[in-house]
Amino acid sequence: MFFDPLYFVFVMPALLLAFYAQMKVRSAYGKWLKVANTRGLSGLDAARYLLGANQLGDVAVEGTPGNLTDHYDPRTKTLRLSQGVANSQSVASLAIVAHEVGHAVQDAVAYTPLKFRGAIVPAIRVSSFVGPLLFIIGLLIGSTELAWLGVIFFGGTVLFSLVTLPVELNASVRAIDMLRSDGLVVTAEEEGGARSVLNAAALTYVAALAQTLLTLLYYISLLSGSRRD
What we know:
Elements: H1 5-10, H2 12-33, H3 43-53, E1 60-64, E2 71-73, E3 78-82, H4 83-87, H5 91-108, H6 112-141, H7 144-181, H8 188-228
Parallel strand pairs: 1-3
Antiparallel strand pairs: 2-3
Helix pairs in contact: 2-8, 3-5, 5-7, 5-8, 6-7, 7-8
């Protein structure tokens, strides 16, 4: 199984897509990080403005270490911004902040996919580790039943990626609507730049779904082949 050419047939395309997506994110973010937004708002200013505009005064804003580590935590109602985004007056910062505020709005309106994703997170943390482990052990000891159990567990990871995609796409749609309706992007160029950053980020979630799905299909193909043998 370690030198199976089918691995490259199933998994390599997704890995290449993931690499391409990361390149697109770095390219779009790097480009629009250098372009100041017309209103001169920092990411932190934009976060406070958009939270207020959406009546989300109960959402706290905190810093978080790292680069592009910005996220909204629905458990604590906290929007966490990386220093590079919080302090930058760029179009890229507006896009990232608006996207995370979009998640806060989803939480406030009880957006079903977000709630479902949050509910399955504890189980997915287990299945994403246990699934491949059971699969490999099952193959090594010749237990097809154990390997199939690993496939079932790993299926939870696919489900998580499948649910995550609409959550992220919806947050980006909300982000563009907010930036436009609240006047945070003034020119067509700014809106286009924000879309570019968000579309590149969305591609990473498409790649993640492709990678988990193709890995699952690879597992199934191995077991189906062994059954025929």
